[in-house]
């Protein structure tokens, strides 16, 4: 993708449309509010796959950017570790996102204060439990990559109920002549 190569399993997930990875990477980079981004915070790439969006943050904010990519598929996590190896602050963790967030909650309230979280859940969305845990952890901003507008709307409503409002959203027709629409949204704490 662009100047960067990503390793993944032959049967692993990658965007089908040949321009989708570059489009979503650029959209995530643009969605992150640079004034609110702290490269030393406990930044997270949840449902991180092979590290595509974590790499987008590293490319934008530098090799010292601290970011944890969390993915349930151990093969994808292994590839994420290799794909993110040049970033000294990057690590790849094999875990379910809900369990990972529960451990962060156990660490202490607002454990993600100041952090940016990239959230790229499956078509069904992140769901109430993940959104509630994430909001309780207090990240500075959440950049949500959605492949289903209905799931995004449901999760945005849950975020809203827990103090996070939608600041920006962009839609992308990555699958022309179908009903599928990708979206990239940014949420921030409502003050």
TrEMBL record:
Methyltransferase in keyword set: yes
Alphabetical UniProt keywords: Methyltransferase, S-adenosyl-L-methionine, Transferase
Annotated positions binding S-adenosyl-L-methionine: 15, 47, 71, 120
Record bears the keyword Cytoplasm: no
Domain of life: Bacteria
Active site: 147 (nucleophile)
Family named by the database record: Belongs to the class I-like SAM-binding methyltransferase superfamily. RNA M5U methyltransferase family.
Annotated protein name in UniProt: tRNA (Uracil-5-)-methyltransferase
UniProt organism field: Agromyces marinus
Source organism phylogeny: Bacteria, Bacillati, Actinomycetota, Actinomycetes, Micrococcales
């Amino acid at each position: 993708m662009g100047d960067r190569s990503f390793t993944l399993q032959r049967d692993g997930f990658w965007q089908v449309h040949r321009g989708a990875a570059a489009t979503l990477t650029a959209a995530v980079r643009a969605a992150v509010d640079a004034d609110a981004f702290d490269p030393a915070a406990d930044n997270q790439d949840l449902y991180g796959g092979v590290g595509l969006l974590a790499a987008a943050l590293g490319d934008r904010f530098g090799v010292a950017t601290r970011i944890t990519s969390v993915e349930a598929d151990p093969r994808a996590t292994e590839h994420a570790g290799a794909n993110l190896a040049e970033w000294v602050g990057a690590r790849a963790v094999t875990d379910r996102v809900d369990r990972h967030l529960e451990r962060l909650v156990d660490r202490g309230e607002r454990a993600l204060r100041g952090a940016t979280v990239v959230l790229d859940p499956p078509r069904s969305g992140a769901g109430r439990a993940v959104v509630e845990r994430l909001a309780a952890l207090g990240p500075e901003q959440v950049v949500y990559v959605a492949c289903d507008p209905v799931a995004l709307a449901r999760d945005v409503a849950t975020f809203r109920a827990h103090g996070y409002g939608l600041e920006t959203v962009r839609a992308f027709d990555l699958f022309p002549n179908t009903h599928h629409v990708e979206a990239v949204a940014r949420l921030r704490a409502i003050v």
